Amino acid sequence: MSKTKIWLITAFFLVLIGCIVFAGVMTMLEWDFTKLSTAKYETNVYEIEKEFEDISIDTDTADITFVLSENEKCVIKCYEEEKSKHYVAVEDSTLVIKAIDNKSWYDYIGINFGSPKITVHLPKTEYNSLFINASTGDVDISEGFCFNNINISLSTGDIRAEKVSANGVNLSVSTGRIDISGAVCKEDIKITVSTGKAYLTDVKCKNLVSWGDTGDISLTSVVASEKLYLERDTGDITFEKCDASDICIKTSTGDVKGTLLTEKIFVAQTSTGKIDVPKTVSGGRCEITTSTGSIKINIQN
Q1: What whole-number percentage of the chain has pLDDT above 90?
Q2: Is the separation of the CB atoms in 159 and 139 below 8 Å?
């Protein structure tokens, strides 16, 4: 028998033994991969007694959820690593939550299946401003909250806001998804997505502006009293029962299709694709440009 065959047989048996050992260990752990994690997690509860009007959260990795408190007390629950806890306090009428990393370099070596979570139980529904800056994690704002300004920036994660009201909204994700439903904004809504999708449903605002590199954007029953501006490099733009006084839509690679509530004066252009827009001669301006894609617009009866 050649040395090559001997090595192959030996390698096969080593892999087989490794698989058997792994299966045995995972069976003992009931196939719960989180039990393999070398990072230790704990739950810390912070009760806030001071009044505050603003909320500022700055963290590395954590899912952030806002809910209305059941006992009219402000409580922040943090499921976090023992060596990467969060600082929670009220400073100058601002609820401050920020990550404090006490890890040494060797603490980053190992397996980590855990997912830090921050749950903010708020005693009332109205606040001045909400600011969130996070690297990795989702943000979930449950219905009923009202802010003067909302500013959320994520590197990797999803943003979901349901039935919130605000004066101005600015949402940005590098990689992720943005879902807004039932929102009312007195001024502007700005949405930026590098890679990901955006979905807006039953939204009213003054101006809606959205930029994106790669990903689709879908609007349903979205009405801007002044301007609707949507731009994508690669991705489809679709809308249903939407409207604005002035509409501008641009995409390099992708289709544009949808229904508007009122007549517009259409200016449509595409390099490769078909154009099908109503031949109306009244209403505001609707300019649609795509390099590679089709354009199809209807007026809702």
Answers
A1: 73
A2: yes
